UniProtKB/TrEMBL annotation, chain A:
<comment type="similarity">
    <text>Belongs to the VPS26 family.</text>
</comment>
<dbReference type="InterPro" id="IPR028934">
    <property type="entry name" value="Vps26-related"/>
</dbReference>
<dbReference type="Pfam" id="PF03643">
    <property type="entry name" value="Vps26"/>
</dbReference>
<keyword id="KW-0653">Protein transport</keyword>
<dbReference type="InterPro" id="IPR014752">
    <property type="entry name" value="Arrestin-like_C"/>
</dbReference>
<dbReference type="GO" id="GO:0030904">
    <property type="term" value="C:retromer complex"/>
</dbReference>
<protein>
    <submittedName>
        <fullName>Vacuolar protein sorting-associated protein 26B</fullName>
    </submittedName>
</protein>
<dbReference type="GO" id="GO:0006886">
    <property type="term" value="P:intracellular protein transport"/>
</dbReference>
<keyword id="KW-0813">Transport</keyword>
TrEMBL record, chain B:
<dbReference type="InterPro" id="IPR005378">
    <property type="entry name" value="Vps35"/>
</dbReference>
<dbReference type="Pfam" id="PF03635">
    <property type="entry name" value="Vps35"/>
</dbReference>
<dbReference type="InterPro" id="IPR042491">
    <property type="entry name" value="Vps35_C"/>
</dbReference>
<keyword id="KW-0963">Cytoplasm</keyword>
<dbReference type="GO" id="GO:0005829">
    <property type="term" value="C:cytosol"/>
</dbReference>
<keyword id="KW-0653">Protein transport</keyword>
<comment type="similarity">
    <text>Belongs to the VPS35 family.</text>
</comment>
<dbReference type="GO" id="GO:0000139">
    <property type="term" value="C:Golgi membrane"/>
</dbReference>
<dbReference type="GO" id="GO:0006886">
    <property type="term" value="P:intracellular protein transport"/>
</dbReference>
Length: 327, 795
């Protein structure tokens, strides 16, 4: 009935990917709160498969069937104006007629360049999908098939300087903190330690907050969205001068993305570690440090760091002053 | 759940808070166990984490927190057991070790980490050395004293059976040796001690005492570390000395906290074996020098000494090795402590030296020089303090110290040899000096030791001078007469311990004693001099017994008798007439026994003189006369002339008594002198029946003068008894007629007595007398010998 009235699809379109079942699935949270699991592809991976069109009516008149591979950045505030940074097109069928029944069109994109990682953020989405368009006179039949893309990096483990810094408030609190690296892969462990050089305030506890900042737009007009991924308590009670508190923070426990800098001049995602000390009068003392997150190729299943992780050393850096704010 | 706020103050608040927390623990533990039963490990661990949130509280007092901890650690046992038994099979422990660290709150996270980590060791999967190291390091994250102490206690509790120990152990686990355990416990111990000390500085200063109390309640948590170390079999004395103890002592010194220092050192002393202590005496004692002023160093040193004394006394211990100069170590180190540590007061110094003394006496009983060395150091200590600063407690300690060698040697002659003993004793106050003197005397008497030389007697009596002489520092108040007499009787007993086997020396010993005792004042003479008289008389008998070996014996006896005479005169001058009279009588008898008539006579005459000049009370006179007559009857050395004089003197004196009844009895008594008295010439009894009867007749005559009927009859009966005695002794002057006459007289008089108790007594006396006669009559029937009562008619 719907077909007779010209509403709805007169044909079902399904996009099949080769070996889709074997692909790793990545879960994303959409802005409506639902979750979706997408097959994972890496930069340079081939995309191949077939498009199945099942024509329900007697026949389907069309002015061509196209398949596109699209990489798109869309600001949720400006959905109507997405920016496509990648677009590859294949003509599946020339204008003509498709008879009732099933039709299959194999396709293949070789060595597809996928420069960015899929990202489903608060204000921005970076997504990849295959789009089938059956061009018709009045309303095209369009079908999208999203995929997930992850970008892999490789940093040599040895070439890692630690982040070490002495901060404080004069005659009140001096600490020296040290994180073993400045770049961490997503399943990495942040190891570090806090030295208390001077303690004149009664500290109640200390935690590190992992903060994600999503910045959309460029320059001064950018909108920044800050989200605390987790609060991780690293000390209970008040230390005295000379105390050294260990930090061991497993990034693998959280859903994180690699740090993204100025992606196609549209947005950035950055991560920060905020070291927070709270005193008995509920004053907060904190020091925020950016950390670079990157995705490492899963070589083996073994990601756990286990025991015997040695707290690394490093070079000392400039003094800085922690900010104080009343809460 | 909140980590804020102060502990709830009231008791009910605490109970309620604890009850609520325990209820939540139980509920979560139930969920945890349910999940574990279904092998849902991660869910179980999550419930455990929720349960452990309770441990984040700041609202509970240490006591309540402890109760909560006990509940929680009980429940964690299930998890731990599950991990060891079930999870270990086919699951990866390292994964779990990471997963539990995702927990956002540190307290539950670390409890879980410890639980998983120790299970990890127990399934022998990971490197036990690294796991232990990691656990003890990660626990640094809890800096809150109470929560930190309990977390680390949990660590100790879980690792109790997982610590690397001996080499055999290493084969089973693959890695880790006892040195790793030592390092692990040292670290944990240091951190726990720091937390414990830090408790002191929390909160308001006015609650200092409350906090000290709370800290003392928690001390066992810190001490458990030391117990764990002492449990390690792999630690030998060498390892203890080089690794274990230095680590502990560093911590003790560095923390600068008196409560901690005192407890930890006591703990070290009590948990490690004596063999280890012997190797580390210097380190421990030198550590004492660095302790806080408020630490009772004395308690620590004394407890160490007491342990070693017990050790050396234990026959199974093998004693103190000879290469450890334990006395030198202690005397040097303790002296250093006393001289250099501000907080060691004289009294503490003395208490420590007292223990060192005990040690010296136990370990080196023959080294008198050690004891002397210590005593002179004590003296130096006491002298270095202004007299005004020496309080009673200090003196009591000194008294205790001075008793130590008495008990140890159990031989006062050894005490005398200690040169510094007397000067040190002189530092005691009057009362303590007297107490110690009594103690010395009692020891002398109990041990039965004899003091053989005049020098030793002099020294001993010098020591107990406070009992013998009035002291310059003696308080002026009333003296308890009972105590006084008890003390003096003790001194009296001491006299009998002044015994030399050599007669001449004994004489000197006694003269030495006399010199001391005569300075004692009148109140002491009555106790101290009589024993001296008897001791002298004993010596008289010894000289007499040895007279063949000593041709000067007579001269010497004379000296002794002079000595005795002087003493009795001193007693007499003190107004003790009856006592001196009796002593003269004793002296007379003593002289009589050794046949020196003139001296014996002299003593008798002295006795009479005292009787005449000093004794006026008629009762006293009567008893004196009785003694004098008895004495004279006993004597055998007097010639007829002297004897005659004296027996007449007795008779005359008897006759002069005031009361008729006394006269009567005394005169009757004198009859004995004429019958059984002896004179030197014949060395035979006088047996003068004539005079006997005269005496008795005289006695009757006096009795007749007696006005009171009952008394008179009583006297008649008594005289009758005399007659009967002599009759039975076959004194011819006593005839049947006399007896019959007297019996009749009594029979006549008896009915006139009234019917009272006294009369009844008299009747009874007479009846018994007559019964005796009747009995004799029956016995003599048919027999030829003995007195013949046959003719006596009793009406």
């Amino acid at each position: 009935m719907a077909g007779l009235l010209g509403f709805g699809n007169t044909a079902d379109v399904i996009v099949f990917l080769n070996e889709e079942e074997d692909k790793k699935k990545i879960e994303y949270r959409l802005e409506d709160g639902t979750k979706t699991k997408l097959p994972l592809f890496y930069d340079g991976d081939n995309l191949s498969g077939r498009v199945k069109i099942h024509v329900k009516s007697n026949k389907l008149q069309h002015s061509g069937v196209q398949l596109e591979f699209v990489g798109q950045i869309m600001l949720l505030s400006d959905k109507s104006n997405p920016q496509e940074f990648t677009s590859l097109v294949r003509q599946l069928s020339k204008p003509g007629e498709l008879s009732q029944g099933a039709h299959e069109f194999p396709y293949e994109f070789l060595h597809v360049e996928k420069p960015f990682e899929s990202f489903y953020g608060v204000n921005v989405r970076l997504r990849y999908f295959l789009r089938v368009t059956i061009e018709k006179r009045f309303a095209n039949i369009v079908k999208e098939k999203p995929i997930a893309v992850q970008t892999l990096h490789l940093y040599p483990e040895t070439d890692q300087s630690s982040l070490k810094m002495e901060v404080g408030i004069e005659d009140c609190l001096h600490i020296e903190f040290e994180y073993n690296k400045q770049r961490y892969h997503l399943r990495d462990v942040i190891l570090g330690k806090i030295y208390f050089l001077l303690v004149r305030v009664k500290i109640k506890h200390m935690q590190i907050d992992l903060i994600r900042k999503e910045i959309t737009g460029a320059g001064n007009s950018g909108i920044s969205e800050t989200e605390t991924v987790t609060k991780y308590e690293i000390m209970d009670g008040a230390p005295v001068k000379g105390e050294c508190i260990p930090i061991r923070f497993f990034l693998g426990a959280y859903e994180l993305t690699p740090t993204m800098k100025d992606i196609n001049k549209k947005f950035s995602v950055r991560y920060y570690i905020n070291l927070v000390l709270l005193d008995e009068d509920d004053r907060r003392y904190f020091k925020q440090q950016e950390v670079i997150l990157w995705r490492k190729q899963d070589k083996t299943k073994k990601n756990c760091s286990g025991v015997g992780l040695i707290i690394g050393g490093g070079t000392s850096t400039d003094m800085d002053t922690a900010k104080e704010e009343k809460s | 759940m909140t980590t804020q706020g102060e502990p709830g103050s009231s008791l009910e608040d605490q109970e309620k808070l604890l009850d609520d927390a325990v209820r939540r623990v139980k509920r979560n533990a139930f969920d945890m166990k349910r999940c574990l039963d279904q092998s849902q490990v991660m869910d179980g661990v999550n419930h455990a984490g929720t349960m452990l949130d309770e441990m984040r509280t700041s609202l509970l007092s240490p006591k309540s927190y402890y109760m909560l901890y006990m509940n929680v650690s009980d429940e964690l046992m299930h998890l731990s057991q599950f991990l060891v038994d079930e999870y270990g099979k086919g699951n990866r422990m390292p994964d779990l070790y990471e997963l539990v660290q995702y927990c956002g709150n540190i307290v539950p996270r670390l409890y879980l980490l410890v639980t998983v980590g120790t299970a990890y060791i127990k399934v022998r999967e990971g490197s036990r050395k690294n796991i232990l190291r990691d656990l003890v390091e990660m626990c640094r994250g809890v800096q809150h004293p109470l929560r930190g102490l309990f977390l680390r206690n949990y660590l100790l509790q879980c690792t109790r059976l997982a610590l690397p120990d001996t080499g055999q152990d290493k084969e089973q686990y693959g890695d880790g040796g006892v040195e790793d355990s030592i390092e692990f416990i040292h670290l944990n111990f240091g951190e726990m001690n720091k937390l414990w000390v830090r408790m002191q500085y929390q909160g308001h200063s006015r609650e200092k005492e409350k906090r000290e109390k709370e800290r003392l309640e928690l001390r066992v948590l810190v001490g458990t570390n030391l117990v764990r170390l002492s449990d390690l079999q792999g630690i030998d004395a060498e390892c203890y000395k080089k690794q274990v103890l230095p680590g502990i002592l560093d911590q003790v010194i560095q923390c600068r906290d008196p409560i901690s220092q005192e407890y930890l050192l006591e703990c070290v002393i009590s948990v490690f074996p004596d063999e280890f202590h012997l190797q580390t005496l210097e380190s421990i004692l030198r550590t004492c020098q660095k302790l806080h002023e408020r630490v009772a160093i004395r308690k620590i040193v004394v407890s160490l000494l007491e342990r070693l004394i017990k050790f050396s006394e234990n026959p199974d211990s093998g004693g103190i090795p000879s290469d450890i100069l334990i006395f030198n170590i202690f005397s040097v180190e303790v002296s250093e402590l006393i001289q250099n540590h501000k907080s060691v007061a004289t009294v503490d110094g003395l208490a420590m030296l007292s223990s060192v003394l005990n040690l010296a006496l136990t370990v080196y009983p023959k080294e008198i020089s050690y004891v002397d060395q210590l005593l002179s150091f004590c003296l130096k200590c006491v002298e270095s303090v202004p007299e005004a600063d020496i309080n009673n407690i200090t003196l009591k300690e000194l008294l205790k110290l001075l008793k130590v060698p008495i008990d140890a040697y159990n031989h006062v002659l050894t005490i005398i040899k200690l040169e510094t003993y007397a000067p040190l004793m002189a530092r005691l106050g009057y009362q303590h000096r007297k107490d110690l003197s009594v103690y010395l005397c009692q020891n002398l008497i109990d041990t039965g030791i004899e003091i053989p030389t005049p020098q030793e007697a002099e020294e001993f009596l010098g020591l107990i001078e406070s009992l013998i002489k009035k002291q310059s520092d003696e308080p002026t108040g009333e003296i308890d007469p009972e105590d006084f007499s008890e003390e003096q009787n003790l001194v009296g007993q001491v006299v009998h311990r002044l015994v030399s086997p050599v007669n001449d020396q004994q004489y000197h010993v006694l003269t030495t004693a006399k010199k001391y005792f005569t300075e004692g004042g009148e109140e002491r003479l009555r106790y101290t001099l009589p024993p001296l008289v008897f001791a002298a008389m004993k010596l008289v008998r010894r000289y007499y017994a040895d007279k063949d070996a000593d041709d000067k014996w007579e001269k010497k006896l004379q000296h002794i008798f002079q000595f005795i005479s002087q003493i009795i005169h001193s007693i007499s001058s003190a107004g003790l007439s009856e006592l001196s009279l009796r002593l003269f009588i004793q002296a007379a008898l003593s002289a009589d026994r050794v046949h020196v008539e003139t001296i014996a006579y002299e003593f008798v005459s002295q006795a009479f003189m005292i009787y005449e000049e000093e004794i006026s009370d008629s009762k006293a006179q009567m008893s004196a006369i009785t003694l004098l007559v008895g004495m004279l009857e006993q004597m055998g050395s007097l010639g007829e002339e002297n004897h005659e004089t004296l027996r007449s003197k007795c008779a005359v004196t008897s006759n002069k008594l005031l009361r008729k009844s006394n006269q009567c009895r005394a005169v009757a008594l004198c009859s004995n002198l004429f019958w059984s008295g002896r004179i030197a010439e014949s060395n035979a009894h006088l047996r003068d029946g004539q005079r006997v009867v005269e005496c008795l007749r005289k006695a009757l005559k006096i009795a007749n003068q007696c006005m009171e009927a009952a008394a008179q009859v009583q006297l008649f009966i008594e005289v009758l008894n005399y007659y009967l005695y002599y009759y039975e002794k076959e004194c011819e002057s006593v005839t049947i007629q006399i007896l019959e006459q007297l019996i009749r007289k009594i029979n006549d008089s008896l009915p006139h007595l009234g019917a009272n108790e006294e009369a009844e007594q008299i009747h009874k006396h007479f009846q018994l007398t007559i019964q005796h006669v009747v009995h004799r009559q029956k016995l003599s029937e048919g027999s030829t010998g003995g007195p013949n009562y046959a003719k006596l008619k009793i009406i």
